[in-house]
Design a protein that fits this description.
ten-stranded mixed β-sheet, 17 helices, alpha+beta, five-stranded antiparallel β-sheet, Dipeptide-binding Protein, domain 1
């Protein structure tokens, strides 16, 4: 399942001009209802849209756009307040939307990119957004690794008139989305922030269509930004906190929420078939995997990782854990198929997976590596027990089910494993800090495989509060391979550069692929029209995605 994550995309053109028409005039209006008493006034209107991205715990008033643990990130609201230079359509990867930048151009070798900044944009406090704000933001990201969530290797930032130029030591064609998706913040406010990684940003000033309205630990509302540069017709967005997928589903079924993005057991029977206004779209965009901590026993051992991959029943995870909504991964490289089929090489055929799981094969792997079964019936190595805790949020009911299935499979292979359910905040913190053994997680997504593998393997992302490479891989050869992939400007060159990375994942298992992740998108169309669909894929429909702003600006009130 794909939940909140950084979305990235690549570009192969040396020079590009964005679509000439922006979304100006594509207004959105809606009728929403929240389960929170604090939002009762908003429920009474017909211009409120209630969104749910994933279950979480009571939240604190933190809207820092660079932090994965902030309230705005957890509830999928950041892009409603802060905006990037470009927006991208992951459902139709060739589309790029001009946003705070109206166009961009690469230099002749892809080591520098120049953005032309949109004129007439104001911050929500009424002051102008300028190229100086853009340059300040990128310099701040450049100088603070903890908020450099895209792992950008920025060499320098310069301005000239209405343009901002970023330079890099190596070509960055494939890294366009990571570059252009940085949220721009006002220099007048953030220049006085001592540590941008710990700044709560409790009362955010952004360029987006909404500003903070009300806040409680059970949720918050955003109200229309009167200074926004595009037309906004939805007066209020409501982001209530739901404790589990079950409570979120209840809100969706009753019309208290109109847009959700989580796992629903028995989707057809209990949601789609109950009303003609109930819809869902699951666009396959990424790969779910078990992420082993490569610096903690026993998941730091290759033999153990190979045994885990051999033992797990991916078909059971797909059918029983994910209700058949996410198919099992077919190749140990983890390449998202069929989405990235043009990048698939026949050289990967030998890494085909047995998706039924094979405990005997896992036994063989461990015995060959010198592991023995102790008196307790589980493997050990020279007296050291092979004990594994699999952690994920209990409120992510699909991941909790997946974790239980994995634990059972590993026990069949004589590996002492158990699933431990955590709160969303505790899990997010532990994964970001590296305090775990094994967890189920989704991959980054983009229009080329670069974003997927960079999110898995790029050691620059594994900071004290990691935004990727959660397993803490630090492999210079892979870093060099990722750099070559980022520099590749054609499908043929990218496929060639990708192959050693795919083989590394398949053989060394820094991540253990399980099922292909879908962008979960459930919505109630009773009050709104204009939702993205397979026949009109102007955007991926997941409400947690940073591109959810594009969807909101497309929606219109029914009638």
């Amino acid at each position: 399942m794909m939940r909140s994550s950084t979305l990235r995309i690549g570009g192969a053109l040396a020079t590009a001009t964005l679509m000439s028409a922006s979304l100006v005039g594509l207004g959105s209006t809606g009728a929403f209802a929240s389960t929170s008493t604090a939002h009762a006034k908003a429920r009474a209107t017909s211009t409120v849209l209630t969104m749910e991205s994933s279950p979480t715990n009571p939240i604190s008033q933190n809207f820092n756009p660079f932090l994965p643990s902030s309230a705005s990130t957890l509830l999928g609201a950041t892009s409603m307040i802060y905006e990037p230079l470009l927006q991208f359509d992951l459902a139709k990867p060739t589309i790029k939307y001009p946003w705070l930048a109206t166009k961009y151009a690469w230099n002749k070798n892809g080591t520098a990119i120049t953005f032309t900044i949109r004129q007439g944009v104001k911050w929500s406090n009424g002051t102008p957004l300028t190229p100086a704000d853009v340059a300040f933001t990128y310099n701040m990201v450049k100088n603070n690794a903890a908020i450099n969530t895209g792992g950008l290797s920025i060499k320098s930032v310069s301005t000239s008139g209405d343009t901002v130029t970023l330079s890099f030591a190596t070509p960055q064609y494939t890294n366009l989305q990571s570059i252009a998706n940085v949220y721009i913040v006002p220099k007048s406010i953030w220049s006085s922030v001592k540590n941008p990684a710990t700044f709560a940003d409790a009362n955010p000033i952004g360029s987006g269509p909404y500003v903070l309205g009300s806040f409680t630990p059970e949720g918050f509302t955003l109200t229309k930004n009167p200074n926004y540069w595009q037309k906004v017709t939805i007066s209020t967005l409501d982001f209530p906190v739901y404790s589990s997928n079950t409570t979120a589903l209840e809100a969706l079924q009753t019309g208290q929420a109109q847009w959700a993005g989580n796992f629903i057991t028995g989707l057809k029977q209990i949601f789609l078939n109950t009303s003609s206004a109930h819809h869902a779209w699951f666009d396959p965009l990424n790969t779910n995997s078990l992420m082993p901590n490569l610096h903690t026993w026993p998941t730091d051992q290759l033999a153990v990782r190979k045994a885990i991959s051999a033992a797990i029943d991916r078909n059971a995870i797909s059918q029983n854990g994910e209700a058949g909504l996410e198919p099992p991964v077919v190749n140990a490289s983890g390449l998202v198929l069929p989405t990235f089929k043009p990048y698939y090489s026949s050289a990967l055929a030998s890494y085909k997976l047995n998706d039924n799981g094979n405990p005997s094969a896992a036994d063989t792997i461990l015995k060959k590596a010198g592991y023995t079964i102790g008196k307790n019936g589980f493997y050990q190595y020279k007296g050291k027990p092979v004990t594994i805790s699999i952690v994920d949020p209990s409120s992510y009911t699909d991941y909790a089910a997946d974790g239980a299935i994995v634990a059972q499979d590993l026990q069949k292979a004589h590996i002492d494993a158990r699933f431990v359910g955590l709160s969303v905040s505790a899990w997010s913190s532990d994964v970001a800090s590296g305090n775990f053994q094994l967890t189920m997680h989704w991959s980054s997504q983009g229009t080329t495989p670069y974003q997927q593998y960079e999110g898995w393997l790029d050691s620059k992302l594994a900071t004290k509060s990691a935004s990727g490479d959660y397993e803490r891989l630090n492999n210079p050869a892979i870093q060099a391979d990722l750099s070559k992939l980022a520099q590749a400007g054609s499908l043929k060159a990218q496929s060639k550069a990708l192959l050693p990375i795919e083989k590394f994942v398949a053989t060394q298992l820094p991540v253990i692929p399980t099922v292909y992740g879908a962008a979960f998108d459930e919505y109630n169309s009773q009050s709104f029209v204009g939702w993205p669909t397979p026949s009109n894929p102007y955007e991926s429909g997941q409400p947690s995605a940073p591109t959810n702003e594009v969807v909101v600006l497309h929606l219109k009130p029914k009638g």
